[in-house]
Amino acid sequence: MTTATELPASDPSSTSTLREDASRHPEEQAEPITMLNPDFPFSYDHYLAHPGGLGSVPDELLGTEVAVIGAGLSGLVTAYELMKLGLRPVVYEADQIGGRLRTAAFPAAPGVVADLGGMRFPVSGKAFYHYVDLLGLETQAFPNPLADATSSTVIELAGKKHYAEKPGDLPPFFREVADAWKAAVNDGAKFGEMQDAIRRRDAARIKELWNELLPLMDEQTFYGFIAASDSFKAAGFAHREAFGQVGFGTGGWDTDFPNSILEILRVVYTDADDQHRFIRGGAQRLPEALWQHAPSDLVHWPAGTSLASLHSGSPRGAVGKISRDPGGNLRVRERWGREASYPAVVTTCQSWLLSTRIHTEEALFPAELWTAIERSHYMQSSKTFVMVDRPFWKDIDPETGNEVLSMTLTDRLNRATYLLDNGPDQPAVILLSYTWNDDALKWLALDADERVELMLHSLEQIYPGVDIAGHIVGQPITVSWEADPNFMGAFKANLPGQYRYQQRLFTHFQQDSLPESQRGIFLAGDDVSFTAGWAEGAVTTGLNAVWGVINHLGGGSAEGNPGPGDLLDELGPISLD
Ligand code: FAD
C-alpha cells in the first residue's frame, strides 16, 4: 500500500499490478475497485464499452444543433458523444479549452509543464481512463507521499521531522494513527464490506449498505465522525491532529474536516485517493485530444469529422444569458451579443456561475434546484510551481545518507510540496505548495513572488542549508482558482445536511417529472456529480447529460445497453425526508 498512513488496503497486492515503467495505465486485476459511486452504482465504463453504443436519435433530427456550455472535460465528453450520435454540438467557452484540466508551460522551457488543476488520476476512475486510452495518452505513476514512485517523503509536524523511503520507516505513532482510521471506517462505515461489494460490482449490496448509512451520516462532519469513533477516542487528540495533518492517500485532509463525512467515504470506498497517475505532457492534453479527435464510429458525419472541424477551429465565446424563446427552444446569448436557439442545452460550468455570471432565466429550473445551486459549497485551492535546473533533490546528503529534499507534508504554510522529475539532468518542477480552503486563502492576497518567498522560507526551516532558490530558473507559476471569475472556486464539497441538494442536482438529467417549460436544459460537470473534485465525475455527469439529450429529442438507449437515466429509479440516490 502506498498511502501516507496506510489506509487499509482493500487488496494489498493491488499495487503489484502496476507496471510502473509503462506509459499506459495499468492492467486490471480480476475484480478491481472502480469509482462505482454508492449513490448511483452505475458502471459507466461498461456503458461506454458496449458495442451498441450509447443510443440513437430519430433520423430526421440528425445534424440538430445542441449547445454545450463549457469546454472543460465534461463539456467535451458531452460534445464528443453527441457528435458521435450524429448531432451537432455547439461548444461555448469563456476561457481556454480544458477548464480545470489546465496545464501551464514554463516560458523559459516550454516543454516543462505544471498542472494547475487536476493532476493525478486514480486508476479506479474507469470512465476517465476510457477516454485516456481511446486517445492514446501516456500516463505515469504520480509521486504522492510514500508512493512507490516517490523515492523519499518527509513528514514534518510541530517542528519534528521524519524521513521515510517506505511507510515502515516512520515511527510507530504513524502506524497507530493509520490503524485508528482503519478501525473508524470499518466500525463506523463498513469499509471492508463496501469495498468488497464495489469489487464485485454488486449494485444491490452497495445500495443496501449505503442506504442504511446515509440517514445516519448525512448530518455528520468528517471531524465529528473521527472524534466520535471509538478508535480515535481511545487514541486521543494527538492522533486526531496528526491524522488531519498527514491523512491518507494524498496527504492532509484536515481542511476537509468541516465537510460531510459522506464526501470522504465516497473517496475512500472507491480508492479515489489511491494509485494515482498523471498524464505525460500535462492533463490538458486530454480535453485537447477530445477536441481534435475524429472518431471512427460516427453517425451522420463524414469520416474525419472532429469537434474542432465542426467549429472551424474554435469554440464560441462566453455565454451571458440563457432563456426560453417564444417557440419553446432555449436561447443562448454570448457575452458579446451573438444569439442562437437550441432544442437542448447542456451547462457544464460550475453551477454558481448560472446565477453569478450567466443571466439564466429563473423559470428554467425548479425553485428547489436553484436552492441546491445557491447552497453549494465550493472549496478554495492554490498551487505554486517553480522550475529548477535539475532534480537536485536526489543528491545524497553525505552526513545523513538521505536525499537532500523529499516530497514533504508539513503543518507549515506550504502543507504539501511535490517533486516532479522529468529525467536526470533535465529541468524539473517543484510544486512548492498545494493547499485547500483556509490554507489556500492565506495565499490569495499575495503575488507569485511573495508566495514563493514564504514557501522557500518554510522549506528552509525543514531543510536547513539546502539552497533550493539557487536551482530556480525563470518565473514561478501560481493559481488561486477562487480568484478566477470563470470558476469562482476549485471544486465543490458538500457540507453536512447537503445530501438533498446533491441528489436534486445529480438526478436533474432525468426530466420525466418536470413540466415542459423546465425540460431540455441539463446540468453536468464534476460539481453535479457525487464525487466533485475528481475528473471522473466530470465524465460521468457528461454521459448523464448525453442520455438526457437523447431522450429529450425522442431517441433512446441502444438495445442491451441501458443508460444512466434508464436505471436511475432502480439504482439512484434515495430521498431523505
Ligand atoms: P470545468 O473544467 O470547470 O469546465 C467548465 C468550463 O466552463 C470551463 O472551461 C470554464 O471556463 C467554462 N465557463 C465558465 N463560464 C462560462 C461561460 N459563461 N460561458 C462559457 N463557458 C464558461 N480531479 C482529479 O481527478 N484529480 C486531481 O488530482 C484533481 N485535482 C484538482 C486540483 C485542483 C486545484 C482543481 C481546481 C481541480 C482538481 N480536480 C482533480 C478536479 C478536476 O480538475 C475537475 O473534476 C474537472 O477538470 C472538471 O471538469 P468540468 O468540465 O466539470 O468543469
> Order of strands side by side in the largest beta sheet?
8-7-17-18-19-16-20
Q: What's the tally of helices?
A: 19
Number of strands: 22
Spans of 5+ residues with little confidence (pLDDT < 50)?
A: 1-21
The bound ligands are: flavin-adenine dinucleotide
Structural class: alpha+beta
Pfam families: Amino_oxidase
GO molecular function: monooxygenase activity
InterPro entries: Amino_oxidase (IPR002937), FAD/NAD-bd_sf (IPR036188), Flavin_monoamine_oxidase (IPR050281)
Keywords: Monooxygenase, Oxidoreductase
Describe what this molecule looks like in 3D.
By secondary structure, this protein is an alpha+beta fold. It folds into 3 domains: 44-99 and 281-378 and 493-571, FAD/NAD(P)-binding domain (3-Layer(bba) Sandwich); 106-125 and 141-150 and 379-483, Polyamine Oxidase, Chain A, domain 2 (Alpha-Beta Complex); 171-277, Guanine Nucleotide Dissociation Inhibitor, domain 1, CATH 1.10.405. It is built from 19 helices and 22 strands. The protein has a 7-stranded mixed sheet with strand order 8-7-17-18-19-16-20, with helices on both faces. Strands 2-1-13-22 form a 4-stranded parallel sheet, covered by helices on one side. α2 runs parallel beside α11 (285-292), α4 crosses α5 (191-199) and α5 (191-199) runs antiparallel to α6 (203-217). The longest helix has 18 residues, at 172-189. The chain is globular, with a radius of gyration of 23 Å. Mean pLDDT is 94; it is low at 1-21. The structure holds flavin-adenine dinucleotide. Residues 69-75, 92-95, 99-101, 117-121, 318-319, 348-350, 353, 357-358, 381, 481, 486-487, 490-491, 525-526, 533-535, 537-538 line the site of flavin-adenine dinucleotide.
